[in-house]
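Incident log, support desk, overnight shift.

02:14 A customer reports that sequence design results differ from what the structure should imply. Their input is reproduced verbatim below. On-call engineer (initials T.W.) acknowledged and began investigating.
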């Protein structure tokens, strides 16, 4: 990245300091809530790349996770995205390529203002993990054989949101060096666009879901009535 015109050695430390303060504030809020028995955290998602910052400069999301007795409710409220567009939400091992083990959670569709919300229920805490004790072949969505992988328990503490249609980010100029739309497997048809926002504002080994405590084993937290 070009640095012409920037005072050398000043901007990077300032950004690093700001990021550290943001994460510290988040941790203090999360730990305070846990100590008070509230079990609710809120954290931001940020643009996935400099290219996304250029084509969608206001892309962001606010994520809230709260206890629901035996699991959690996670609400992702996105803003600054392309209007009237579909996106796909995943829980992932790390926020950037190659992402690691990834779990499809929900679709998210924006309105004419580029705003959209996804609300999902599951395990979104420090206990979130995937495991595959053996490699088994089954028929996939197109009734073609697909072979799984074998791996031990792997926690996933990050989030990522992808464009559902590969053509959309290409037309928006979010892929300035690409000659054709970039295709990724991050939607129900395994034919999605690039990632738009993620939780790369948290370290790879310390994603935000890691800071939510396990659900109450005693069932002390009442389920919400939807």
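02:41 Re-run completed on a clean worker. Output:
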């Amino acid at each position: 990245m070009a640095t012409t015109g920037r005072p050398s050695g000043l901007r990077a430390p300032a950004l690093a300091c700001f990021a550290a303060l943001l994460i510290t504030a988040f941790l203090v809020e999360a730990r305070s809530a846990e100590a008070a028995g509230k079990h609710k955290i809120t954290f931001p998602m940020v643009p996935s790349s400099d290219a996304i910052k250029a084509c969608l400069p206001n892309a962001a999301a606010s994520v809230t996770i709260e206890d629901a007795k035996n699991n959690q409710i996670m609400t992702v409220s996105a803003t600054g995205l392309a209007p009237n567009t579909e996106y796909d939400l995943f829980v992932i091992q790390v926020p950037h390529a190659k992402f690691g083990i990834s779990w499809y959670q929900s679709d998210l569709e924006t309105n004419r203002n580029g705003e959209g919300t996804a609300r999902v229920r599951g395990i979104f805490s420090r206990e979130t993990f995937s495991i595959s004790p053996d490699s088994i072949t089954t028929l996939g969505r197109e009734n073609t054989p697909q072979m799984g992988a074998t791996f031990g328990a792997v926690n996933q503490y990050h989030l990522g949101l992808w464009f559902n249609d590969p053509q959309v980010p290409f037309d928006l100029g979010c892929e300035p060096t690409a000659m054709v739309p970039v295709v990724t497997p991050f939607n129900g048809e395994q034919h999605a666009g690039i990632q738009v926002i993620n939780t790369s504002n948290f370290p790879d080994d310390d994603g935000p879901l890691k800071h939510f405590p396990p659900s109450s084993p005693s069932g002390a937290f009442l389920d919400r009535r939807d």
